[in-house]
Structure formats: structure tokens, C-alpha cells
Amino acid sequence: MNEQRRIEILLRRHWRSTIDQDILLSDTYEIEESIISYTVDDDGRDYLIDCDITTKSYHYTMQVKIDMETLDMHECIYGH
């Protein structure tokens, strides 16, 4: 669980930095021996991000909603 939380925090920083400099697009991102593939959509109010995360020890999915104005992440759902 700590590993998932750490990856979540690193992804938030990555997405925020990307949004500050440009627009958020689907991509593959590597963090410390983890590979994260994510697709980005929006509903006009939120970024809707579906992640597929593979680490050395496990594989899981995560769905995230980020408010487009405030950049607050207000929903994060984990799956396996």
C-alpha cells in the first residue's frame, strides 16, 4: 500500500508539472522501476485518467479525476 501511495504522489507531481507547461495527454511514464501507462479524457470539468501500473512486484489499475481549474485530485479508485 505504501508503494501505491508513493506512486500516486509522484504521478500527481508529474501531471501537475505537465499541465503547468502544456496540456495533459495520454502517455507512458517510468518511475523507479515502475511503468505507468495512462489515458487521459475530459468531461469539460475534470481530467479523467485511467492508469495501468506495473511494478517489480505487482500490477494494478487506478482511475483518477482531477479538476481542470483547481488541479485538485478528487477521486482515486484502485483495481487489480
Enumerate how many helices there are, as a single number. Answer: 1
* Shape, principal axes of CA atoms: globular
Strand content: over 45%
* Share of helix, binned: 25-40%
Largest sheet: 5 strands, antiparallel
* Rg value: 12 Å
Q: What structural class do helix, strand and pairing data support? A: alpha+beta
In whole angstroms, the N-to-C terminal distance is: 13 Å
Low-confidence stretches: none
Order of helices and strands: HEEEEE
Number of strands: 5
Mean pLDDT: 91
Strand order of the largest sheet: 1-2-3-4-5
What tags apply to this protein structure?
80 residues, alpha+beta, five-stranded antiparallel sheet
Task: Write up this protein.
Helix content is 25%, strand content 49%. The protein has one helix and five strands, in the order αβββββ. The model has no long low-confidence stretch (mean pLDDT 91). It is of the alpha+beta class and 80 residues long. The two termini are 13 Å apart. It is globular, with a radius of gyration of 12 Å. It has a five-stranded antiparallel beta sheet, with helices on one face. A hairpin with a 3-residue loop joins strand 2 and strand 3.
